[in-house]
Amino acid sequence: MNMKRFDSLLPIVGVVGLLAIWSVATAAQWVDPVLLPSPIATFKALWSGMHGVLGFDFVKTVYRTIMSTLIAAVIAIPLGIVLGSSERLYRSLEFVIDFFRSTPASAMFPLFLVLFGVGDETKISVAAFGAILVILFNVAYGVMNARKTRLLAAKVMGASRMRVLFDVMLLESLPQTFVGLRNGVSLALVIIVVAEMFIGSQDGLGHSVFEAQQLFDMPRMYAAIFAAGALGYALNLLFLTVERRFVHWSGK
Amino acid sequence: MSAQHALRVESAGVPSTPPVGGVGKRPHVTVRALSKTFGKTVIYDNFDLDIPRGELISVFGPNGCGKSTLINMIAGLIPVDKGQILFDGMLLSEIKFGYVFQNYREALFPWMRAFDNIAYPLKLMKVPPAERRARTEALVARLGIKLDLNLFPYQMSGGQQQLVSIMRSLVVEPEILFLDEPFSALDYEMTLFMREQLQRLFMDTGMTMVLVSHDLEEAVYLADRVLLLSRHPARVADFTPVTAARPRTTVTLSEPDFVSTKAHCLDVFQREVRRA
Predict the structure, then answer these.
(1) Which residues are bridge partners to B37 per DSSP?
(2) How many structural domains compose chain B?
């Protein structure tokens, strides 16, 4: 028997197992069917929802998450390079960065509500705020940890400071920058979904989950949760794919 | 101004370099009154050295005596505290030189293909792309090294990466080449192969080369002259000429002259180690 041939199917085992236990649990009524609908009911709700309101909410959440990550990247990457290329500058700001990086972004909601009012700006800016610090921290460390030999090699070949920065440091920091971007987009999604639940939102996946719960429409609630999960997974996969394509030397 | 300096130095007359073989040959590199301290450790104190033109010099000495520090100061990787280093009376910034690092993995750029790595110094010199390509291709052809230069460094073996690294240092057609323990991260088989490559390169170009080695046999085998340093503060313990004809082969290793030269170097080395 050649078991190796089936190794690529291994990731499916967990999915099938989970669906099997879920089906049995609902069929045998181990759990109140009102609290846990059957997989079929859930996926029906997901299918029809994605062609209707849930699909609209999904797109809204994607837009907000991407916007906040984009804004964060545009601000944090250049800033991170500047901070990282001067270790003394970074050390002077390290405490401030670490402090706000450790502050739950959700604690900033009221402040941002005051600043930007109830609307997309608030959600996007809070999420961007959280993502900025994560990306900034990673980019700065990527630049600071550039291999000394590589910088020396460029210098000994006659590269100017600017050349070293653009030809070596920037590329050296790319693997770490992508770590920051992946963490940043995950955090942005978390913040966006929470913001959609609680700060006067009319749409988005967070709103969808919250509304379904209020209406006690459990299949729809589970469907929205799955949609959020799929979105998080897809965003991570997207960044990983881009990283493998553009930072092919990472970890080698 | 540098000529004046050279004159002044000549008249000061500090011949710490034993006059062996140097007679009649104008030195390529002159090091005068070089001083360097790391923290409280004096590595060099008023150190003088003449490196003859067109010779391969091996630098050998006790651990931590400052072998690498010496070539790093000559190649401008680390600043000197005091002293003067001239190349035919010129400053480092006025000449073309190559430097090969021990750690090829970190010295090459993993985001560039081997070919672009080799051509990179030309890019820094603002050579137009077409000429860059032509000059790099010419170098590869001249060296006769068979390598797939479309690979990225991390797709190559250690020896191949170090070859790429050496080619990168040669592409600017340097007058002098510095090599800091270039083979010490390679396995023995590859080290032997690379020694032959380096010897061939030296014979083909006649370029001045300064090689730091921690392997006495390698140091003697490759060198025209072995620079033996003392413990720090480093002095020239001996500047031993190696007269064996080139190309040297494994047969050379067991010839009486070679064996006695190596034994002499080992004697000097052990005397310097015990002196502490």
Answers:
(1) B42
(2) 1
Ordered by where they begin, the domains of chain A are 51-246 (1.10.3720.10)
Rounded mean pLDDT of B132-141?
Answer: 93
CA distance A91 to chain B (A): 24
In a domain, B222, yes or no: yes
CATH code of the domain in which B234 resides: 3.40.50.300
Render pLDDT for B97-123 as a digit per residue (tens, 0 to 9): 999 999 999 999 999 999 999 999 999
Q: Would you call A156 and B120 a contact, using CB atoms and an 8 Å cutoff? A: no
| Number of residues in chain B | 276
Tens of pLDDT, residue by residue over B159-188, are 999 999 999 999 999 999 999 999 998 888
Q: Within the 111-170 window of chain B, which residues sit less than 8 Å (CB to CB) from chain A?
A: 111, 120-121, 124-125, 152, 154, 168
Looking at residue B13, its pLDDT comes to 41
Average pLDDT rounded to a whole number, residues B131-147: 90
Answer whether residue B4 shows pLDDT above 60. no
- Report helix angle A205-214 to A218-246, nearest 10: 160
SS (H, E, C) B2-38: HHHHHHHHHHHCCCCCCCCCCCCCCEEEEEEEEEEEE
Cβ contact B215:B266 at 8 Å: no
Contact by Cβ (8 Å): B81, B36: yes
Give the Å distances, CA to CA, from A122 to A128, A175, B71. 10, 31, 59
User: What's the complex ipTM?
Assistant: 0.82
DSSP letter, residue A167: I
- Greatest pairwise CA separation for chain A in angstroms: 75
Q: Does A152 touch chain B (CB under 8 A)?
A: yes
The helix (H) or strand (E) run that includes residue B210 is strand B208-212
Residues A21-39: what's their mean pLDDT? 89
Run of H or E including B237: strand B236-241
Closest CA relative to residue A185, chosen from A233, A251, A219 = A233
Domain region containing B190: 54-68+175-275
For residue B100, give the H/E element and its range.
Answer: strand B97-100
pLDDT tier for residue B207 given thresholds of 50, 70 and 90:
very high
- Nearest neighbour of B121 by CB, restricted to A149, A157, A252: A157
